């Protein structure tokens, strides 16, 4: 099943939900500035513009940075932000003995923070969480704070729609819903 990339409206709505869901996502993970508009996709954390510049300077092999407002995103990147977030990253750093690295600091401190063992362990941990979330998704999109629909959106595939429309279970439902009259698909002409 091919899924269209997220639209600008879907991206904006998702980040609004993620920031509303967790207040720690409304501050920069590195320095604590309010209302970050950037993020490190690599670590699933939110960053202010100044700290995003530091991350860009470290290189994409350490931290891949995107604007939460200006850039386009893939569903996989958005999923990483959903399962990550500042609170999850901070908890992981603390559990792995790197809690002292969480307080704000200089650019050199940031590079040290993201090249330490805890950061390197967090990347595969985050990837595993994203994979688990993907397996729960019925349509490969990212859903936050809502129960995913039991059925997927109507298909753009003509043959899938026709097969569904003419399946026995659908026809029996149609028959029950027409007040005792047989649906047109069941009426046959006399021979």
Characterize the structure shown:
The structure is a single chain. This protein is mainly alpha-helical. 47% of the residues lie in helices and 5% in strands. The protein is built from eight helices and three strands, in the order H-E-E-H-E-H-H-H-H-H-H. The protein has helices at residues 8-21, 49-58, 75-83, 86-95, 107-115, 117-136, 158-165, 168-176; strands spanning 38-40, 45-47, 65-67. The chain has a three-stranded antiparallel beta sheet with strand order 2-1-3. A hairpin with a 4-residue loop joins strand 1 (38-40) and strand 2 (45-47). Helix 3 packs across helix 6. The two termini are 43 Å apart. Residues 147-155 and 169-191 have low confidence and may be disordered.
Features of this protein?
3 strands, disordered C terminus, 8 helices, single chain, mainly alpha, 191 residues, 3-stranded antiparallel beta sheet, globular
Span between termini: 43 Å
Oligomer: single chain
Taken from the alpha-carbon principal axes, the silhouette is globular
Mean pLDDT: 76
**Total count of helical runs of at least 4 residues:** 8
N-to-C order of helices and strands: HEEHEHHHHHH
Strand content: under 5%
Structural class comes to mainly alpha
Low-confidence stretches: 147-155, 169-191
Write down the Rg.
23 Å
Q: List the strand order in the largest sheet.
A: 2-1-3
């Amino acid at each position: 099943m091919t899924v269209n990339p997220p639209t600008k409206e879907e991206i904006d709505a998702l980040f609004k939900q993620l920031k509303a869901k967790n207040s720690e996502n409304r501050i920069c993970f590195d320095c604590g500035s309010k209302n970050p508009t950037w993020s490190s996709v690599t670590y699933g954390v939110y960053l202010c513009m100044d700290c995003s510049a530091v991350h860009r300077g470290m290189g994409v092999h350490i931290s891949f940075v995107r604007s939460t407002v200006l850039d386009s995103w893939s569903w996989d990147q958005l999923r990483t932000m959903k399962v990550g977030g500042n609170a999850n990253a901070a908890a992981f750093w603390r559990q792995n003995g790197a809690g002292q690295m969480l307080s704000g600091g200089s650019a050199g401190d940031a590079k040290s923070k993201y090249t330490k063992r805890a950061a390197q362990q967090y990347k595969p941990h985050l990837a595993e969480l994203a994979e688990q979330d993907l397996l729960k998704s019925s349509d490969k999109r990212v859903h936050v704070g809502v129960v995913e629909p039991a059925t997927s959106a109507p298909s753009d595939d003509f043959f899938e729609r026709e097969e569904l429309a003419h399946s026995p279970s659908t026809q029996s439902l149609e028959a029950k819903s027409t007040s005792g009259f047989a649906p047109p698909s069941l009426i046959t002409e006399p021979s």
